[in-house]
Inverse folding.
C-alpha cells in the first residue's frame, strides 16, 4: 500500500519534521556564532591569564572530566523523573559511543601537530578539505540521514570549498601539506559520521550520549597525557594547581566545550553530519572576519573576497538544503 494512500491517516508526529527543519538555521547559526565567540574568549583568557599552561592534552583531560561531572549531575537530577517517562531499550551505549571517543582522541592528538607544522596561511584551506571528503563519504556510504542530495546543495559545498581553498591554492597542493590536510579531513568526517550513527542508535538521547562519551574520552585521555609526558611535567613543574583562579579558568573552558558539544549534537540531530562539517568550515572562515572587524587585525582584500565567497557557499547550502535531512523513521524517536 502506498505511503500516501488515503486509507492511512498521517501520523500525528509528522509536524515534528517541519519543526525540525525550521530549527536547522537557528541551531546552525547559534553553533557558528558561539564557536567563534568561544575560540576568541579562550584565546583572550590564555593571553591575559597569569597561568601559562602549555599542556593541550592535560588541559583537554581536565576539561572533559569537569564536563562529565556536570553532565552526571544533570543526569542524576533527571533520574527522579525518569520512571514517569517512556523508557526505550538501548543496545550497549558503550559500544555505540566507543568509535566517537576514538575519533575524538585522534583529533585531539593530531590537532597540535597540525597547528604547529602547518603555516597559518594554510590553516583554512586545509581545514576546508573536510567538505569534499565528508560529501564523498556521505554519498558513498548511503547511510540513513547522511545524504544531502540536490544540485544546489552540491553547488553550495563546492563554492564553500573553493572559496576557502583559493586563499592559498599553490602551497596547499604540496604533497606533504596536502597529506596532513587530507588526514585531518578524513578524521573530521569520520568523527561526524560516528556521532550521527551513535545518536541514531541511541534514539537521539543526547544526555546518555554525552555521559558515555565524556566518561570514555576521559579514560582514553589519561594514557595519552601520561605517555606524552605532559602529566609528569604538570605534577612536577606546575606550582599553581592549588589556586582556585586556575581551576576557574578550567571550569570556564569546560563549560564552553560542553556547550559546543551540545550545539554540535543538535546540528547533527536536526540536520546531518555534512551540515556539521559545513558549519565548522563556516566558523573557521568567519573567525578572521570577526577579528578584523572588532580587533582591527589586518586582512588582505583577496583573502576577504575568498572568505566571503566561502561563507556564501555555506549560506547557499543551508538555504537550499532539502527539507528533512534526517531519516523519516527517526522522527518517532524524538
Amino acid at each position: 500500500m502506498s505511503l500516501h494512500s488515503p486509507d492511512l491517516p498521517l501520523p500525528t508526529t509528522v509536524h515534528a519534521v517541519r519543526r525540525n527543519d525550521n530549527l536547522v538555521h537557528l541551531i546552525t547559526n547559534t553553533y557558528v556564532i558561539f564557536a567563534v565567540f568561544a575560540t576568541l574568549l579562550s584565546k583572550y583568557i590564555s593571553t591575559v591569564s597569569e597561568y601559562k599552561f602549555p599542556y593541550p592534552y592535560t588541559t583537554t583531560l581536565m576539561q572533559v572530566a569537569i564536563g562529565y561531572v556536570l553532565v552526571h549531575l544533570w543526569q542524576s537530577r533527571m533520574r527522579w523523573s525518569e520512571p514517569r517517562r517512556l523508557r526505550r531499550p538501548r543496545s550497549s551505549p558503550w559500544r555505540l559511543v566507543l568509535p566517537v571517543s576514538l575519533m575524538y582522541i585522534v583529533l585531539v592528538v593530531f590537532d597540535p601537530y597540525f597547528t604547529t607544522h602547518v603555516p597559518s596561511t594554510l590553516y583554512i584551506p586545509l581545514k576546508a578539505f573536510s567538505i569534499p571528503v565528508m560529501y564523498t563519504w556521505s554519498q558513498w556510504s548511503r547511510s540513513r540521514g547522511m545524504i544531502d542530495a540536490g544540485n544546489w546543495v552540491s553547488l553550495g559545498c563546492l563554492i564553500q570549498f573553493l572559496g576557502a581553498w583559493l586563499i592559498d591554492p599553490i602551497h596547499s597542493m604540496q604533497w606533504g601539506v596536502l597529506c596532513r590536510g587530507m588526514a585531518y579531513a578524513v578524521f573530521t568526517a569520520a568523527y561526524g559520521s560516528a556521532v550521527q550513527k551513535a545518536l541514531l542508535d541511541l534514539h537521539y538521547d543526547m544526555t546518555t550520549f554525552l555521559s558515555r562519551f565524556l566518561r570514555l574520552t576521559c579514560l582514553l585521555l589519561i594514557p595519552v597525557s601520561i605517555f606524552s609526558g605532559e602529566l609528569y611535567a604538570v605534577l612536577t613543574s606546575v606550582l599553581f594547581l592549588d589556586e582556585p583562579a586556575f581551576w576557574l579558568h578550567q571550569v570556564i573552558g569546560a563549560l564552553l566545550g560542553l556547550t559546543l558539544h551540545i550545539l554540535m549534537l543538535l546540528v547533527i540531530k536536526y540536520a546531518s553530519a555534512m551540515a556539521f562539517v559545513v558549519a565548522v568550515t563556516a566558523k573557521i572562515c568567519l573567525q578572521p572576519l570577526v577579528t578584523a572587524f572588532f580587533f582591527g587585525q589586518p586582512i588582505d582584500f583577496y583573502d576577504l573576497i575568498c572568505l566571503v565567497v566561502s561563507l556564501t557557499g555555506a549560506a547557499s547550502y543551508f538555504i537550499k538544503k532539502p527539507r528533512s535531512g534526517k531519516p523519516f523513521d527517526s522522527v518517532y524517536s524524538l
About this structure: Residues 138 and 146 are 5 Å apart (CA to CA). The chain has one domain: 14-77+90-333. The chain has 13 helices and no strands.
